[in-house]
Amino acid sequence: METTSAALDAPATSRDRVRQATVLVGAIIAIGGAAYGSGAFGGQPVAEAADGALSATATPLAPDSPAFSIWSLIYLGLAVFAVAQALPRQGADPRLRAVSWWVLASMLLNALWIGVVQADSVGGSVVVILALLAVLAVIFVRLVRLAHTGAVTSLITDTTVGLYLGWVSVASLANTAAFLAVAGVGELGLGATVWSVIVLAAGAALSVAYAVFGRRRPTVIVPIGLAMAWGLGWIGLGRTNGPLVDQTVATAAFVAAAVALLAPVITSLTARSR
After folding, report:
1. Rounded distance, CA 126 to CA 113, Å?
2. Which of 233, 55, 29, 184 is CA-nearest to residue 112?
3. Can you say how many angstroms the Cα of residue 194 is from the centroid of all Cα atoms in its chain?
4. pLDDT (tens place) for every residue of the chain, 274 residues total
5. Percentage helix, strand, coil, to 5, in the chain?
6. 244 vs 265: CA distance, rounded Å
7. Contact (Cβ atoms closer than 8 angstroms) between residue 26 and residue 81
8. Contacts (Cβ under 8 Å, ≥6 apart) of 14
9. Closest CA to 117 of 37, 174, 177
């Protein structure tokens, strides 16, 4: 779908201004609440909540602790997005009209996820993170289908959503594995190693699906691949040391990370050559 110059030059409406202000204020509340709930200001860290069900050593699919530093970059991107979309000249931007409410919903769901984990509900956290993943998937589809508008704003939006979706995709796998472990069916009769390799293969397949669908929008799929490779790579590193050493899972995670990293590059180059 192409964006016409008439659409870009259309004046902002009162609904646009309400959206801009609401997304900006909502982002401040959501990001602040998420930071507080995750222990950034002295509270209980997420890794220690729910009896450590989501810690770096809870399951073979848990990323090692340094992986979670990506949240700093995601929060920064979301903050910049919130400010950029609130600029007066961005009110009528059709791409921002299409995704801003959804981005706000994703931030609120992320804050809710942290609150649910702090309430020790691992099952509830799975429901919320899958809802978050679905919302980010909607944003991804819209960004792929809509043409770029302003270069800077489009780059900020694409990069931030790409990193966010890529990381949440990996986190959803780890979160689900943690819930199954808490429920006592973490291995589903397959054994921890086999089950983990199957899930990692599913993660690699998901990264390929993103890359194929968004092959004409590398500004989105490359950040997705980077974030997924980051998360999967830290799962691999986490299985090479500590209490849950498993070389088979580590190898599978590193292979999945390589797939996630290369898939968007290959599909983008292939799409361009055609």
Report:
1. 8
2. 29
3. 25
4. 444 444 556 789 999 999 999 999 999 999 998 888 787 777 788 888 888 999 999 999 999 999 999 999 999 999 999 999 999 999 999 999 999 999 999 999 999 999 999 999 999 999 999 999 999 999 999 999 999 998 999 999 999 999 999 999 999 999 999 999 898 876 666 788 999 999 999 999 999 999 999 999 999 999 999 999 999 999 999 999 989 999 999 999 999 999 999 999 999 999 988 7
5. 75, 0, 25
6. 32
7. no
8. none
9. 37
Name the one residue in this structure whose structure tokens are 């009896």: 51
Of 38, 107, 70, the closest CA to residue 232 belongs to 70
Return the residue matching tokens 């589809």. 141
Total residue length of the chain: 274
What confidence score (pLDDT) does residue 187 get? 64
Rounded to the nearest angstrom, the gap between the alpha carbon of residue 215 and the centroid of all alpha carbons in its chain is: 18
Among 97, 77, 79, 74, smallest CA distance to 156 is for 77
* Residue entry with tokens 């509340």: 29
Supply the pTM of this predicted model.
Answer: 0.94
Burial state string for 248-258 with b = 16 or more CB within 10 A and e = fewer than 16? ebbebbbbbbe
Tokens of 50: 């729910």
Taking each helix axis from N to C end, the angle separating 94-118 and 70-85, rounded to the nearest 10 degrees, works out to: 140
Q: From the centroid of its chain, how far is CA 45?
A: 19
